[in-house]
Amino acid sequence: MKATKESLSPTRVKLTVEVPFDDLKPSLDATYKKLSRQIRVSGFRPGKVPPRILDQRLGRSTILDEALQEALPQFYSEAVEAEDVDVLSRPEVDVTEFAEGSPIVFTAEVDVRPQLALPEADSVKITVDKIEVTDEQIDTQLGSMRERFAVLTPVERPVATGDYVSLDLSATVDGEPVEDATATGMSYEVGSGNLIEGIDEALIGASEGDSRTFDTELLAGDRQGQTAQVTAVVRGVKEKELPALDDDFATTASEFDTLDELKADLRQRLEQTRKYEQVNQAREKLLEQLIESVDVPVPDSVLESEIEAREHRLGHDLERYGVDRETYLKTLEQEPEEFDAQVRESATKAIKSQFILDTVVRAESVGIDQGELMEQIVMLAQRSGVAPEQYAQQLAGGNGAGLTALMSDIMRNKALLHLLRQATVVDDDDNAVTLELPERPDPADLEAFEDDGHDHDHDHDHEGHDHEGHDH
User: Fold this and answer.
1) pLDDT digits (tens, 9 = 90+) for 201-232
2) Domains along the chain?
3) 236, 165 in Cβ contact below 8 A?
């Protein structure tokens, strides 16, 4: 086999491959064997039809074409390996010369991973927020704890914001009752905004036994988008009493004996949280800085594939929650064009991040051992609530695409940790910051390249030498 590589752009190459005709023999023999089983010829048992009879029935050229179709994926893979082509998409193959006894010549155009020139890691400087825990933040934490130990006490007065009311709800549209829009004895915190639009305004000032009717738009169900008349009957009103903030509260709400000890623990926990946030901020800023400073071309095929995968995941999530796309965009207060542009921008950044970190993986020979991989699988399985063996089997399905994607993400995160260790990190006051970096990537960090919070069920390598749909 002879193969030459021509660069068409930073992300696309053209392979010209010449294969001796004799290299087609294994595929030709296999094709004859397969056709011998499929074609019924009088006087011959299935699988025993000789090649010359098949040539007469089907035509030699037809059989040669089928044999070539079977052989092309292998020929293409050998050329890719010989020329060290880092493919990202399916190839567009064109057979230019194919005659019996003569060398087979074909071309293959394919998108490839770009070669990037990255700055020296120790030349990168990142500014992160300084760690600062204020008394106000401690008070907020204590307030949340007091809320958990609050007691609801019945009151005989009009409803105010923050009260808990017991409600009977019903709804009609044009006088017709709305199914599944009835509730009895529902408990609701007035002012929380967790029920339906308009109810808080309707309830404030009402007393026990009062009935309030208001209009609201239905956001789900068969009558989605229609205006309903909702009636709320107040069956009871309770106010929330918070416990006193003292040593007794500290003993009740924690393992500490005094309020001062509880406050010290809260401060320490908040500081640790800020350190974790500092690492995440450094990760994001480092990638943003590299994306802005490095020319990272993105092939259209890769970008469109990523966008399609994100749209598929979003559609799956919306279907699971019974929400259509239009309603979802309304909750985001975005127009379709604005949302689509945001998805495209996010997908582009994610792909550029992958390309940058893949470059570091190769340059630094970042790898992953079996122990590391199993450790990640076990932790991810625990988060998914399945047995590690079952999770590993799921990853191995589909030609191991899930496992390959997981390994790639682990190595990318290791590469990112390497960059963070080399970079200069300072806070807002330009003081040096020592990040508390983990020795190994946390499973939560594996989602860094699958942002937007969607489910991440696709191959982030954009690889896999798929030879279906070649154009000959």
Assistant:
1) 999 999 999 999 999 988 877 788 889 999 99
2) 2-111 (3.30.70.1050), 151-241 (3.10.50.40), 259-449 (1.10.3120.10)
3) yes
